[in-house]
Amino acid sequence: TPVFEMYPIGFASLSEYLERHGLKVRIINVAMKMLKDDGFDVERLIQKNKALAFGLDLHWMVHVQGALALAEMIKKYHPHTPVILGGLSATYYHEEILREYPFIDFVMRGDSTEKPLLELLWTLKNGGDFKRIPNLTYRDGGNGIKVNPLSYVPENLNDIAIDYQHIMKKVVRYADPVGYQPFIDWYTYPVTAVFTCRGCSYHCKTCGGSSTTFRTMANRLKPAYRDPKLLAQDIFDVSSHLNAPIMVIGDIFQPGEEYGFSFLEALKKKRIKNHIAFEFFVPPNRRQLERIAESVINFNIEISPESHDEEVRRAFGRPYNNEALERMIGDTIELGCKRIDLFFMIGLPKQTYDSVMGTVDYCRSLLVRYQPYRRLYPFISPLAPFLDPGSMVFEHPERYGYRLLYRTVEEHRQALLSPSWKYILNYETEWMDRETIVASTYEAGRRLNRLKAEFGLIDPKTAEAVEKRIGLALQILKEIDRMMALPNRREREEALSEIIQKPLPLEIYSMSTVCEKKELEWPTQLIRMNLFKILKTLFSRKKREIRQ
Fold it and tell me: Are strands 106-108 and 136-139 parallel, antiparallel or unpaired?
């Protein structure tokens, strides 16, 4: 999945902020370069790039193996150059990281590190005391670790920009379109995102971005929002360069109707033709949906009910029932929504194998009910591979019916070397062990795939390809299980090595197994990029104004 090669969008805001304040920054998506070129030499890339400092993301824990391997490689070739780690997972493990991995020099903590990182880099460049830099964890020169207060927690996002024009110019400056590419097929499907906020008001139990987690881990007591007019301008700036979908990340009504309506009013004046996708944490009411329909020519909706079972959904932290969800779906269809995505999850509190299958049955009932509308897309996937560090379930697994299998950084790092996602999973629940989570994932995926084919949401060729991939995945998993059961370690490793030498089956097994990745794509225009406007931006010396 794209989680392997995707870098956090915060890299874009960090790059823009640092360059705005006089530093030169380059983003290099190493994973993307590896995917594009089997013979890509990572060590040579590291060796030839010299910098004041190297920054690596450890936002999603699934990146831990790659982040630490790169950090160690950087230290090998640049022993005197500081290596900085950032992201929410790095924030959670900041002291453990510095204690256990000597090739990491600094950890920047929190959800907003633009200003503290600037201070750190100027201090590294000009000299000074690290004690005064907020959000920083570092070594004291001996064996000790210093933890500065996490005091930089901005109240709004008006001084921060996800500026795609900035990224375009950087691509040209470094002649490196692959290094800046966010995921494997971005140039054929250039979807972008704008952010309403950092932080959250909700308390979803497994989420590393919940209100509770932000409070305890990032010292954020309330969400920081971007001014609604600036948010609308962000979308307009993207639409003037790209004719592709734009995701609005964060529920626009989370801070209240006034914020959402103000944003929609500003957006209405722009008359943007791009498909704009809104995500909602709770179903919006009819009035709110009418405002969206009035303001956006092509609007799409996505929401994550997690389960059809209201008890399971409530245990997870979603505070609404099926009646509210179904009312929203009906209203949205009436108002001309181009597409509705429903996301369900496997591995939730109080969820059993039968409950997972019940979710697929519920999806059938929705597709029957809302015929002939053929743009209601249900998806189901496991909570995988890791529970988010800092989430309520991670902190108190027994309280919520979970058993945590890996807790430390090194345990997660080693788990990622396992031959199957079944053995990477860092949890089981009272209701489903790892075996059952995996079995329910493939069976639910198979049933939902057939359901989509039956209702014409996917074509027969796609359905057949997914069916074959699921069958192959189960076959390979059975073979891996047999090998993992071998008592002799050497024999086991040789057997696993043999299966790894077959790249095609493993690729099929690991990529988009239970659905086709293209099913997640919103409509795009035939010409996806405004080349004239892009060229005009590239040759312009005018910098985008950042209004605070």
Answer: antiparallel
How far apart, in whole angstroms, are the C-alpha atoms of residue 420 and residue 424? Answer: 7
**pLDDT for residue 503:** 55
Whose CA is closest to 257, among 233, 224, 292?
292
What are the tokens at 433?
Answer: 């062990």
Q: Are strands 54-57 and 106-108 parallel, antiparallel or unpaired?
A: unpaired
Tell me which residue of 269, 200, 259 sits closest to 226, measured CA to CA.
259
pLDDT tens-digit map of 469-502? 999 999 989 999 998 888 888 888 888 777 766 6
Domains recognised in the chain with CATH numbers: 10-157 (3.40.50), 188-351+359-383+391-398 (3.20.20.70)
Q: Which tens digits make up the pLDDT trace of 362-414? A: 999 999 999 999 999 999 999 989 999 999 999 999 999 999 999 999 999 99
Which pLDDT belongs to residue 509?
46
Sequential DSSP letters for 95-122: HHHHHH-TT--EEE-SS--HHHHHHHHH
d(CA 239, CA 270): 10
Cis ω for the linkage preceding 228 (within 30 of 0): no
Under 8 Å between Cβ of 104 and 98: yes
User: Which residues, in sequence order, are CB contacts of 414 under 8 Å at separation 6+?
Assistant: none
Pairing mode of beta strands 298-306, 339-346 = parallel
Question: Please, are residues 162 and 195 in contact by the beta-carbon 8 Å criterion?
Answer: yes
Compute CA distances 75 → 53, 72, 103, 140, 518, whole Å: 11, 5, 6, 19, 39
Report angle CA 2, 182, 473 to the nearest 5 degrees. 15
- Mean pLDDT of all residues in 70-77: 98
Q: Hey, CA dihedral for 197, 200, 202, 206, is it positive or negative?
A: positive
Backbone angle region of 306, left / alpha / beta, with phi > 0 → left and psi within -120 to 50 → alpha: left
Listed as own residue / partner, the contacts of 259-262 with beta carbons closer than 8 Å and 24 or more positions apart are 259/225, 259/228, 260/228, 260/288, 260/291, 261/291, 262/228, 262/229
State the Cα–Cα distance between residues 517 and 6, nearest whole angstrom.
14
Question: What count of other Cβ atoms lies within 10 Å of the Cβ of residue 427?
Answer: 23
Q: Give one word for 284, left, alpha or beta, with left for phi > 0 and alpha for psi -120 to 50.
A: beta
Instruction: Give me the pLDDT at residue 125, please.
Output: 97
SS3 of the chain: helix, strand, coil, percent, to 5: 45, 15, 40
For residues 469 and 509, what is the distance between their CA atoms, to the nearest angstrom?
A: 6
Is residue 281 classed as helix, strand or coil in its secondary structure? Answer: coil
Question: What gap in Å lies between CA 332 and CA 326, rounded to an integer?
Answer: 10
Give the pTM. Answer: 0.92
The one-letter amino acid code at 271 reads R
527-532, long-range: CB within 8 Å, 24+ apart, which pairs?
Answer: 527/243, 528/188, 528/189, 528/190, 528/242, 528/243, 528/244, 529/190, 529/241, 529/242, 529/243, 529/244, 530/240, 530/241, 530/242, 530/243
Q: What is the pLDDT at residue 506? A: 46
